[in-house]
User: Fold this.
Amino acid sequence: MKLSVARVGIGGPVGSGKTALLEGLVPRLMEQGVEVAVVTNDLLTQEDADRLRRKGFLPAERIVGVETGSCPHTAIREDPTMNILAIHDLERQYPQLDLVFVESGGDNLASTFSYDLVDSYIFVIDVGAGDDIPRKNGPGFMQADLVVINKVDIAPYVGADLELIRRDSKERRGDRPVVYTNCKTGDGLDEVVAFLRKTVLFQDAVESRSSESLESAKL
Assistant:
């Protein structure tokens, strides 16, 4: 089944802030004219989907909960059929969609997405899990197109060395991007939006070419 809408996965351990990240990103993208929908994954409930619906920043019909009934890895990597079908249904209902987020049910550092399902994926960890997380070389952290390190504000309260996290993240990921956020205050979220616009939606490139064309026309 061929999907045309851009798709971005969001994975990471339980409590790292995946849903909070969506709560911050979706309104920002919509303010910039990006048409968004969300597919959430839970094992046997629709808790995350219901939480997003209650926030009211996106029509409830654009938030689809998938009950995977198995290991979260299966639905986003080994056999993403359930998620692909959910995205396909959203495409048919809302042909104007630009972007669909696929939020994985919380899991460990080994969570990765199949590129048959998504075009790009974000892996979220939080400072409260400890400053040794980057050194564990988890596949999700190492391979994600973007890593979001959330809850930077609590570092002093949990004994985490934020500078050590920054240093180890750079050493492990090299040139792959890392953004540091506080989803409660919105700090860092504009950087995540910029990443999506540039590498997934290609909007900045289009706008840049348009500006160059206008300047050339004036000359």
